[in-house]
Design goal:
single chain, 283 residues, alpha/beta, six-stranded parallel β-sheet, three-stranded antiparallel β-sheet, globular
């Protein structure tokens, strides 16, 4: 593999020359930013739930079969608050915004924590394809609206006692009267509302531009959990556009497709280090 400094220089040059940058961000980006779902951050914030249910991390806890809605929302309100509303814009995301600078760009992300919005990425340049913690939906998708939930979540967290919330705070679908859910893609009932479809159309328009222009596809922290959303399409775009370069930053899976080997720069190094270095060269 080419040495790190050479790869870094080549990536910086590609970004500087690009007419458009398409960013693809996965869970590894937020993890590198400090939004870990396990370890001390988890144990420090979920001690009562760990003691009661034996949870080991936030990800697997999200699939726990709670017996009541009061228990379900006690956990999920804490989860949403900790990962969506309490954190400020993390420095890594702010550094990434500097890397983009004034270039034309678009972001597709499977992350649901709102960090791009907090780091001053315009909403019209974002496609959070897997949803957003900040919204509720009907659990059975009886209609295609989503509902901003910050005040409800704060009330639930403030009134949680022994891993339960009061029954009066349990959210109810305003259309069918059934239970609500978090608007994240976890089953066949994920609601793709008007805003989701508009973002999808903007993303497709961006792909059409990327296919015909000098472009950098900057992929960060995208593994093989849902590779068909970002990883494989990015490789296909680079394959179809000889002017495109793929910059892949991924601790566990940095390698690129053999078909694109001459137009891929792979980084297995620390994401924060790579992005910070690219940010410095873009100033």
């Amino acid at each position: 593999m080419i040495d790190y400094q050479t790869r870094l220089k080549q990536a910086a040059e590609a970004l500087a020359e690009a007419e458009i940058i398409l960013v693809g961000a996965g869970a590894g980006l937020s993890s590198a930013a400090g939004l870990e779902y396990s370890g001390p951050r988890f144990t420090a914030n979920f001690a009562p739930f760990i003691a009661r249910y034996g949870f080991t991390d936030m990800y697997t806890a999200g699939f726990y079969p709670f017996k009541t809605q009061e228990e379900f929302w006690a956990y999920w309100a804490r989860h949403i608050s900790l990962n969506r509303f309490e954190p400020p814009a993390e420095p890594l995301y702010q550094e990434l915004r500097k890397v983009i600078g004034t270039k034309d760009f678009f972001v597709i992300t499977t992350n649901v924590d709102g960090q791009f919005l907090k780091a001053a990425f315009p909403d019209e340049k974002l496609f959070p394809v897997q949803g957003d913690y900040a919204y509720f939906q009907c659990a059975k998708a009886c209609h295609d609206r989503t509902y901003y939930n910050e005040e409800q979540v704060k009330a639930m967290v403030a009134n949680t006692h022994e891993c339960r919330i009061p029954s009066g705070l349990v959210p109810v679908c305003p259309n069918c009267g059934g239970p609500m859910a978090v608007n994240i893609r976890k089953d066949q009932y994920f609601v793709q509302d008007k805003g989701w479809h508009e973002a999808q159309h903007r993303y497709q328009d961006t792909i059409n531009l990327v296919l015909s222009r000098k472009a950098v596809l900057l992929e960060i922290g995208v593994g093989f959990n849902t590779p068909v959303i970002i990883r494989y399409p990015f490789e296909q775009i680079v394959f179809n556009n000889s002017q495109a370069r793929l910059v892949r930053i991924n601790r566990d899976y940095p390698e690129g497709s053999p078909d694109n080997i001459d137009r891929t720069l792979s980084f297995g190094e620390n994401i924060l280090e790579v992005i910070s270095s690219l940010s410095e060269t873009s100033q």
